[in-house]
Specification:
Rossmann fold; eight-stranded mixed sheet; globular
Length: 299
């Protein structure tokens, strides 16, 4: 078995940040910054991360960060990159950091435009699978079977019946040069993928799974455990895409049934046995599709 590489010791997130207990976002940010170092300009739209840093004039971040309106992450990233290029500054990473709502829904047009322009930046989608900062509303990344505060009420409509939007596939088709899925439960892999993204010039997309304890209805001490189950059940497989070529970055030898993942979270408590079987079939189908892409990339 290959030995795990130690994580960089440097920390770029001060103690005393304003995240909720059990929040996965500070873990995701810690690992991202360990990979990138301090020469970063992060831009953040409305969302949990804009709050985590704390109230001005204090901040929990040891790096440059700017806030902006919800829908403009891609456009702001292109602007920062253009300004750095105009000044001849080449050693600063432009880091876009947005939630799933600010990525797959509200900010999708700006993100697509930045990719179209070939902007040299890293975009991290911090995916907690709903609009958590404003009250746990459904987003295009909310998984099938989950409950949210905006789920239509009624005997047959108390859970989300739509699938998660396939944002990585959309970004690959859009023209990213590198993409990867990462999970806060696997910090070494997380850091490795973000570091690898820096090796490519052009638009890079990182899809980071980040549990939300109040939104997912889980114990605040179970964040990493629940996140790990997402990958162990193939609900959130880990893979990377280099110039449209796919490769698994984490292989699960003994896959667990999705029911083990679903039962850990109160947001899935209304899911029937029939729906569990439906979700399992969907997960199997999507994972087989991923494996076919991996095999085609080998050929």
């Amino acid at each position: 078995m290959m030995a795990k590489l130690p994580l960089p010791k440097e920390e770029y997130l001060y103690r005393g940040h304003a995240a909720c207990p059990g929040c996965g976002a500070p873990l995701a940010m810690r690992y991202t910054m360990k990979a990138l170092g301090p020469r970063v300009i992060m831009n953040v739209p409305a969302g949990c991360t804009a709050v985590i840093g704390g109230v001005w004039p204090r901040t929990a971040f040891k790096f440059d960060m700017m806030d902006h309106v919800f829908e403009s992450t891609g456009a702001v990233s292109s602007g920062i990159r253009a300004a750095l290029d105009a000044k001849g500054i080449e050693d600063v990473t432009v880091l876009a950091w947005a939630g799933d709502g600010g990525t797959v829904d509200i900010g999708l047009q700006a993100l697509s435009g930045a990719v179209d322009r070939g902007t040299d930046f890293i975009y991290v989608m911090m995916d907690n699978e709903a609009y958590m900062n404003t009250g746990i509303q459904c987003s295009g990344s909310t998984p099938i079977g989950a409950w949210t505060t905006t789920t239509p009420f009624g005997k047959k409509c108390e859970i989300i019946l739509q699938r998660k939007k396939k944002i990585m596939e959309m970004m690959v088709a859009n023209g990213i040069v590198y993409g990867a899925t990462v999970n806060v439960a696997y910090p070494e892999d997380f850091v490795k993928r973000v570091k690898k993204a820096t090796e490519f010039e052009g638009p890079k997309f990182i899809h980071a799974l980040s549990p939300c304890a109040p939104g997912w209805r889980v114990d605040t001490a179970k964040t990493v455990e629940v996140a790990r189950l997402a990958t162990q059940t193939n609900m959130f497989p880990l893979y990377e895409v280099e110039w449209s070529e796919y490769r698994l970055t984490k292989t699960i030898k003994e896959r667990k049934p999705v029911s083990e993942y679903l039962k850990t979270q109160g947001r899935f408590r209304r899911v029937s046995e029939d729906m569990v079987n439906r979700i399992q079939a969907m997960v199997d189908e999507e994972y087989e599709e991923l494996l076919r892409k991996v095999e085609l990339s080998k050929g």
